[in-house]
Task: structure prediction
Amino acid sequence: MSEEQKQQLERQLWNIADTLRWKMDADQFRDYILGFIFYKYLSEKIVLKANKLLNEDWYKKSYNELNESDNYEKDLIEAIKENSVEDLGYFLKPRELFSEITKKWNSVSENTDDNFIIDDLTKILKNIESSTMGTESEDDFDDLFSDLDLTSQKLGKTSAQKNELISKVLWHLDKIDFELENIETDVLWDAYEYLIAQFASWAGKKAWEFYTPQQVSTILAKLVTSGKKQLKSVYDPTCGSWSLLLRVAKQVDKVWEFFWQEMNRTTYNLARMNMTLHDVNYKNFDIKLDDTLEHPHHLEKRFEAIVANPPFSAKWSASPLFMSDDRFSQYGKLPPTSKADYAFIQHMIHQLDDNWTMAVVVPHWVLFRWGAEWHIRKYLIEDRNYLDTVIWLPANIFYGTSIPTCILVFKKCRENPDNVLFIDSSNHFEKVKNQNKLRNSDIDKIINTFSERKTEDKYSYMASLDEIKENDFNLNIPRYVDTFEEEDEIDLEEVANKIIDLDKESKSLDEKIKWYCDELGIKSPF
Result:
């Protein structure tokens, strides 16, 4: 996609977002917009599938032209349904397609008080979900549109107001060509990246619950895919909107299976939509709606790559029962109830397969807090030797929080078992409005340093395990990477001479001022 095309797409997306963003909170209109985009995508996807099947039968009509009242065409629709549910995981009738519904809505006066827009759309979205009942994809589509409350007062007080608002959103969306047949472009990817970033900037404090900045996602993805072309499995225990796993998929030729868990239903739905939008077949992913620490799924599996941006210092039960849980039992202590950071790390390490990599974003105080966290940190380094790399990120790069963060990289079978690499990238960024942003050059520098495992003055250092032990397993990066800049030496004699010269100059000016005052016949201040 050219820069001009991208700018045009962003203008179209802005028009859609601007229609709703003054009506409700960012996290609410996000759900409406992405829900409608998903509906449009599902429609276009099934049209491509159906037209291909019709072409194989040399049928002259396209899918949206088929008439259910015609017995022969009704049989064709049923055959397409069977094929689509098996291959795509869902089904839409010709009259339920996005393009057909928008035609119908645009032909009706926007002043009507009829509920037809709300009723039609509600029924269609329910039909998409129900088309999967009793099939393999049922769990993946169940309650997928539950966050799209089309009866909400925020869309308008009257039916006419709701109809008008939804019509405007769909009208703008209808103008965007997703170009699903063009494998050289990824309009959906660009649209999603733009919208999700806009939502995050508008959502403020709530944003980092569902959104990991693209630059951070890219770093995590590059870290766990370094030197790899394919991955059998990738896992995210706190997936949010699925952006991390999507980035991992972009870094390799193929990921065979995706696994993740999410406890927030809204972001769980968003993640499921996002997977389908990016053409990941329902047979290749397994997502669970549940609390990862308290009610974990997939515990029997081990994954080749794990990435995560867990909620910072979240609360958890830390129940004594967890001392018999294989994820935590070997450490001897549990993380405190008010700080679950290490609980997520322990969970992920349990899920990590041998010879593979995990990368996790954590608040920087995870590096040096004491108590049970010190005990767990010591065990991970001294007893297991799993910690491979510590990367300190710039402050204020996450929407809604300025907490300093870092990335921890763990490997169970390390290629460099005698040292831990420390990278201080905290001063390598550009400021964009109120956010700090990693540039491509900053990302490349981090990844190159990680890959080459090198020491660079004031940027990176390979610390031996003995050094870390001497620091009592405190991983605070300034202990290892010295970024102190020496001040130029001050010549005190030169400074004294300057003061003398300034004093002389001051006295000279005083005398001139006194002379002018005398000439003017006014009192001199000196």
Q: What stands out?
A: Confidence is low (pLDDT under 50) at residues 109-113. The first helix runs from residue 3 to 20. The chain has three domains: 3-205, 219-479, 491-526. Residues 219-479 form a domain with the Rossmann fold fold (CATH 3.40.50.150).
